[in-house]
UniProtKB/TrEMBL annotation:
This is NAD-dependent epimerase/dehydratase family protein. Gene3D superfamilies: NAD(P)-binding Rossmann-like Domain. Residues 9-228 form the NAD-dependent epimerase/dehydratase domain. It comes from Archangium lansingense. InterPro entries: Epimerase_deHydtase, NAD(P)-bd_dom_sf, NAD(P)-dependent_oxidoreduct.
Amino acid sequence: MSEQGKVALFGASGAIGHSVVQALRAQGRSYRVVGRSRSSLQREFGADPRAEIVTWNPEDLASVREAARGVSTLIYMVGVPYTDFHLHPVLMRRTLEGAIAEGVQRLVLIGTLYSFGRPRTERVTEEHPREPHTYKGRMRKEQEDVVLEAGASGAIQTTILRLPDFYGPGVERSFLHGAFRAALDGKRAQLIGPIDPPHEFVYVPDVGPVVTALADEPRAYGRTWNLGGAGVTTQRKQVEQMFAEVGRRPKLMALNRTLLRVLGLVDPMLRELVEMHYLLTTPLIVDDSALRGLLGEVHKTPYEEGIRRTLEAMRASDAAAHSVPSLAS
């Protein structure tokens, strides 16, 4: 991307955004971070002289155009609240309109597996039918369609990288985050069950290098790509490893769909999870052989190592939060 012009990270403040930033820093590249809050962006990225901070209002086309001005590659990671998934295609259309108007050459969307719907095969390739049976899946599919149609029009080159569930240092929006916290605190881990069907998780620090490599690869555009985890596991195995890492016997409790629905009466987030519960009962394991064929080796941190690193980062964060600065003499 350094040879191809400026890269902008729209939605840089999320976990994936930070991973991409780390990859860019490791490569000595400059980059633009785009978000709503200048103070937040300044706090997160202001210490890096290679970071250009730009705020935007995604509801305003003029603001979108200003954020995209002078950019060659746009990496789109904009999140919306789980209750506002209708905004995904809306914001995507506006971003593409602004990007195309400003002459942005390439756009990479970091997406999810929701658009596939229920899996028909043991391993899901990029050619698997996209027939979502959930509202969130339909909104994600519509977002993907907007991106793919823009690419097919010739106005901009586009590609999509789909990720399964993820975990890692600083990743609080994960099925596993509460379990990490419970293991450290010696409490009972609350999970959304069932917890024994096959599942996969991506370790977030592994994502950034894949995104930058994909964005740099001319052959990546005009289609979609899957990135899988470091193998098939289960929620139970992950949690048992967390507790073993801290030297404690595992304690856990799984919420079933019925209890999830009941708790959703008072918790909007849990209420929104009900329709996506099929991802826990019907394993959706991706085949990412196409991505590996394109990029060559794709590093995937083993689960045991990823769990250890995540716990270490949480311990360090806890220690920093509880430390008392010494007074200068």
